[in-house]
Amino acid sequence: MGDSQSLETLKRIESALEAAREIFHRFTPGEIATEYKSGLDPVTEADRAVDAALRRELLRENEGWLSEESGDDLARLEKSRVWVVDPLDGTREFVAGVPEFCVSIAFVENGCAVAGGICNPATDEIFLGALDAGITYKGKPAHASERRSLAGAVILASRSESSRGEWKQFESAGFEVRRTGSVAYKLARVSAGLADATFTLTPKHEWDVAAGVVLVQSAGGFACTLDGQPLRCNQRAPLLSGLVAGGSFLQAELMTLLRDHHAVRRPRR
Predict the structure, then answer these.
(1) Which of 129, 151, 181, 199 could tie 93 with a disulfide, CB 3.0–4.6 Å?
(2) Which domains does the chain have, with CATH numbers?
(3) Which positions ≥6 away from 261 have C-beta within 8 Å?
(4) pLDDT tens figures, 182-215
(5) Alpha carbons 208 and 21: distance in angstroms, whole number
(6) How many CA atoms lie less than 13 Å away from 76 in the CB half-sphere?
């Protein structure tokens, strides 16, 4: 992606995030009717409205589309350029009125996420970036953490994983664990240096993490699957093993920590 193309793509992403934010103004977190999909995952009118708006704002001829709230059209596999979006990551927090939910948008070229944006409409935070352009947080340049040790680091943990006791194994690891909703929001905060790292111990879908991954990488950090592989997007089966991301100097220590605690899991099919 050249400089001019990056700028044009980022403008499209920013415009789509603004459209999504306007839709969220119509809803009150914690006071919205909720339905449940298979697996007891919640879905609301906001999920669907934002999905439709993102499609209108982003999708152009010869581009593919992968969204949590759209039927998966496998014609995307024939496209070199694909949008991977989650209209509302952190729906449980949105339903509960916890201000840790976001809109997540990634632009993928030839299987690699190259630009992305994440907006938390409850806190008016926008994270925007591309691999060849760096990132901005609230319109200002930002950078991933440059901490060189996990000692004293701030690690963002999944609320649901913590509630199930899956993070108890790290209680004596020497870093601060902060429970935070929405994996996309956690990745965005890591990209802007607002936390040092995050990892998830359960499988995730491309739409959960693609935008956050490109933001972290664009900000000088690292991101990979729990088994150490780079994220490949626009796969036929968009489920991947859990993800780890953080400041670049923490990669080796984090991967050793996860291996030693036997946290690596394979995706459920």
Answers:
(1) 181
(2) 3-142 (3.30.540.10), 154-260 (3.40.190.80)
(3) 169, 170
(4) 999 999 999 999 999 999 999 999 999 999 999 9
(5) 18
(6) 25
pLDDT in tens, 221-234: 999 999 899 999 99
Q: Which one-letter DSSP state was computed for residue 169?
A: G
Q: Is 217 exposed, middle or buried (0-12, 13-18, 19+ CB in 10 A)?
A: buried
Is residue 72 predicted with pLDDT exceeding 50?
Answer: yes
Q: Comparing 40 with 144, which gets the higher pLDDT?
A: 144
For the record, the structure tokens of 186 come out as 């956690």
Nearest 5 degrees, angle CA 212-CA 218-CA 224? 55
In this prediction the pTM is 0.93
Q: Which residues of 138-164 are buried (b: 16+ CB within 10 A; e: fewer)?
A: eeeebbbbebeebeebbbbbbbebbee
* Of 35, 69, 42, nearest in space to 53 by CA: 69
